[in-house]
Specification:
- The protein is mainly α.
- The protein has helices at about 1-30, 35-50, 85-120, 125-140, 140-155, 155-185, 185-195, 200-205, 210-235, 245-255, 265-290, 290-315.
- It contains twelve helices and no strands.
- Helix 2 (about 35-50) crosses helix 11 and helix 9 runs antiparallel to helix 11 (about 265-290).
- The termini are far apart.
Amino acid sequence: MEAARRNIELLNVQRSLKKNQRSLFIKRFLANKQIVFGSITLFLLVLFALLGPMLTSYDPYAMVVTERLQAPSSTHWFGTDNFGRDLFSRVVIGAQVSLGVGLTVAVLSSVIGLVIGLYASYYRVLDHVFMRICDGLMSIPAILLAIAFMAALGPNTTNIIVALTVVFSPYVARIVRSSALVVREQTYIEAMKAQGAKSWRIIFRHIAPNTISPLFVQASFIFADAIITEAGLSFLGAGIPTPDPSWGNILSDGKSVIYTAWWMVVFPGAALILAVLSTNLLGDGLRDLLDPHVTSNKKIKYRKNKLLKMGKAKV
């Protein structure tokens, strides 16, 4: 009876600790302005992409030449493009394409980079092979490497995802490897090896969980980079082929009429800026939230600057 009572008390203490940890995490999350602003903005953009087609009855592919380059009005909220197509419906579909490509690339790059980074950190032979390949890919600017892949594969959505996944996976692999190398040298990993634990069990059950925090942060930055890289490729004609709408090719169509039809540049450009800004702010906030060393360093720097200002004010 005494042992059962102690077990019950221990379970209650564990539940209380988990509850307190969750409440503390939520408080830190809500106190971080970057995460809150980035999350809300990104959530609104996702709602815009998902619910936008229900708000308009216009076909984004239907061309009405007599209504070309009409200014924003109650009929066409974002105006029309140089072929008479409704710009609002095209920006909505472009949001689906850009956010979908960014999310898919972020997930695939994270998974591939996680596997490569973990095995490179655990096996020294694979480390030399994988990291030299990653160094070679990272030595080429991302946009140029993506253009080279698109020239070889051809312009369509699937090929863009493949090309950007190859471009951004080395960055994830580097981050994961650097975190996993620190964990691999811990005493409990050596104890697992001494007990004869299988390599895959050590890698995925004991090393991988300790690399999740930097992986999430890097994935959010890749989300933003993939969106803007896809827009750049589409703007150059190497991305989403017309007439399929994308923020990049809408901007490309609008560059020739920017002085007479400003709405063709302003609305897709604003959507692109908000998407990239929100994901970058979300990534910065996640880094501060998940990495206590960054937060403490920022606090120390802030206090030093405050003390310096106070000293100058007294002088």
